[in-house]
Amino acid sequence: MRAVPALVWAVVGALLLVCTGIGYLVGVQTAGPAGGEEGVNYAAATPGRGQAAPVAAEDGSFDATVHGPRGGEPITGPEDIDRIHRRDPRDPFALGAVDAPVVVSVFSDFECPFCAVFANETEPRIIETYVERGLVRLEWNDLALQGEKSEAAAQAGRAAAAQGRFAEFQAEIFDAAAKRGRGHPEFEESDLVEIAEAAGVGDLDAFRRDLAEGVYAEPVREASQWGASLGLSATPTIVVGDRVISGAQPWEAFRFAIETALLKARMGDEGR
């Protein structure tokens, strides 16, 4: 029997992989709950097992000046989009395993009502469905577009992050924003202090001092300028792997994007 050339086997293998990918994506779009639970990780990507909580300094504080792309590397075109995701174990604005197969980077503004919708309705589902399984890492980026109020709230978020309470502060401030209706919440400094207290920020005197002295004013400006340099002019903007999603889209849009990114991650691992 004549041997089949290696090139033919390679082509057949590639076609099978493409067909598998197409079938997978169709499954993600059409599959309903299985066994009473939503199907997750159709690609069977390997979950991350690395550092999930940010690494503190020796004095127990956190570097709340973190911003920008991974390692400070420039982003010059679409081919560099993966550098948006920092994967920095010191990052106090991140949630989830540092080696998760997919990173979801959120560019957001505490004064943005649509950001509150995403944070209150969609982000908890991403956390429960993917982050807690080690499949996704969430990373926050300040994109303060609403003027002084946005910048002050972003500085407050960083002051909370310095004490390791950013996720709690984010949850509290967006909850407070939703309670104020659909407009811009227009938080005052006294509101930000109350939110920090509710979020469990331990040293409120230090928090107040950081706000009064503008300790994080420059990092907030630099982070927002970096987002603008990427062409981002609206919030929320969410980068799922290498796909950009604008606005508080329905849950299924994010689920499909994450599942697609998991497939890409799995295919990338197999190609190494």
Characterise this structure.
Residues 64-83 are annotated as: Disordered. The protein has eight helices and five strands, in the order H-E-E-H-E-H-H-H-H-H-E-E-H. With 272 residues, it is an alpha+beta fold. It has a single domain, classed as Glutaredoxin (3-Layer(aba) Sandwich). The chain has a five-stranded mixed β-sheet. Helix 4 (166-179) packs across helix 5 (189-198) and helix 5 (189-198) packs antiparallel against helix 6. The longest helix has 25 residues, at 6-30. It is globular and about 50 Å long.
Write the layout of secondary structure elements.
Blueprint: H1 6-30, E1 94-95, E2 102-108, H2 113-129, E3 136-142, H3 148-161, H4 166-179, H5 189-198, H6 204-213, H7 217-229, E4 237-240, E5 243-246, H8 251-270
Parallel strand pairs: 2-3
Antiparallel strand pairs: 1-3, 2-4, 4-5
Percentage of helical residues? Answer: 40-55%
In whole angstroms, how far apart are the ends?
32 Å
Low-confidence runs of at least 5 consecutive residues: 1-20, 28-37
User: How can the largest sheet be summarized?
Assistant: 5 strands, mixed
Would you list the SSEs in sequence order as H and E? HEEHEHHHHHEEH
Which class in CATH terms? Alpha Beta
Overall 3D geometry?
Answer: globular
Based on CA atoms alone, the radius of gyration comes out at 21 Å
Strand order of the largest sheet: 1-3-2-4-5
Superfamily at the CATH H level?
Glutaredoxin
Find the structural class using helix and strand composition.
alpha+beta
Provide the β-strand percentage band. Answer: 5-15%
Q: What's the architecture in CATH terms?
A: 3-Layer(aba) Sandwich
Any idea how many domains?
Answer: 1
